[in-house]
Structure formats: structure tokens, C-alpha cells
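user: can you give me the structure for this one chain? C-alpha cells are fine.
assistant: on it. calling the predictor now.
[tool input]
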Amino acid sequence: MAKHRSPIHPNLTVEDAVKSVEVIYKHERRNPVPVEVIAKHCGYDSFKSSSAKRLISTLLQYGLVDDEGSGDDRKMKLSQLALDIVLADGSDDPNRKAAVRRSARLPAVHAKILSEFPDRLPSPATLKSYLIRDLDFNDSQVDTFINKFRKTVDFADLYGENDDEEGEGANGNGHDDESLALRKPSITLNPNAPKMRDLPITLPSLAVAKVTIPERMNDLDFSVLISTIKGWKDALVEKPGSDAPEVDPDDGGEDEDD
């Protein structure tokens, strides 16, 4: 019987992902380097290990690295979002906090949870039920994911619970725009939001993929969009002779990176 796989999701908290990015920056700065080198900088002997592959997948999902090339020519470098974090003026830098929040919201699973529970996280039992029933998580792995996701929520302050300690935000009422955007529909907060367009893409198989994107975007937005799509590759692309994705977030040892 085929193993029930959870949807692709980060194997690290955003805090641990940021620590990995800081290590990569210390060694390589902004240079594109082979994926194997990134894995070794982060403590893995070989990129071929499942743990190393999950690390790379996680960094892509958080939008912290840009992917270049494929096969033996595949390289990665820190994204602009990652540089906004590592080059910030200390952990209290508002720009760093905003970048961490953006990164924490990028993984598709995180975005779905935050959309379903916009005001605050529910009880562990309710969240677990939602993940299993609605998002099709493997029930043997869901508790580990919940633990890491809650740590990510706390570290990135996704619900703005630390705003009162930081004084009034940019909007003058003690909450910054990032936390307010999570609580209310963006259309209410930003009536001048960019117009969206559906981008239909006819694939060689004649299937049609459709992506909803802003009519115009900057380089960082486009880079994060491409990195996020690439992060889904292993979950979507069928491998010859196998139905299993190469990067399997549930393939045992998920706690190895804790």
C-alpha cells in the first residue's frame, strides 16, 4: 500500500530556516553555489540524504533562496528576502521583522492555515482536525508539524501579539500593517491593491495551468513567486517508474532536523 503523504510543508521552523540562511551568508555572501555546498554548510554530508533535500525544499518554500539551473548545474543563492533578514540592523529592526513575517507566510500550507484562522490559532485539537480532514495531513506526522508551525507563528509574531510591547506601529494604533492584514480582508485595508489577472499556461500535455498574479510586480515579488512554484516541484512532478516525489516531508526522520 502506498504511503499516505502529507501536503508539502516546511520541515523547519522559520527561526531555524533563518539560522541556516545566516550560516550560508557567512560562507557565501550573495554568490550562487552548488546545492551540495549549501547542504554541507548546513551540516549535511551529502545533498542526496533525505534530510538535506528537505532542508533545500524548506528554504525554497520560505522564499529564502533562489534556484538556478538543474541537474549537475543546479545552484542556489540567497534571495532578496533572505538578505533583508541577514543584513538587518539587529533582531529588532522593523524591516527584519517584516521580512521574517513575509517568509513565514509564504509556504502554501501556512497560507491556508492563516486564511482559515485569521484572528488567532485555534486549540491544538481543532487545528489537528483541520489539518487531517481539510488539508489531508498524515495523522502520524501532524503533531510534529503543529509544534513547528506554532513556533513559527510565535517567532514571526504572525498574529501581532507583541505589538503592544513595541509601542504604536506605523498606523498609529499599536498594530503594524502586517498584523492587520492578517486579521481583516486585504480589500478593506488596501482599496488601492493591485489589479489581479489570471495567467493561463498551456502545458505540453495540453493540460492548462492557471496562476492568479498581480498585473504588475517588482523583482522581489517575481522572485518569490518563482521560488514558491519551484518549491512545489517535488510534490507535483511524477518521477519515471515511481509515483513518489523525490522530496518527501513525511519520509521518516522528520525530527532529525529539530
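assistant: here you go. Confidence is low (pLDDT under 50) at residues 164-191, 242-258. The CA atoms of residues 22 and 86 lie 6 Å apart.
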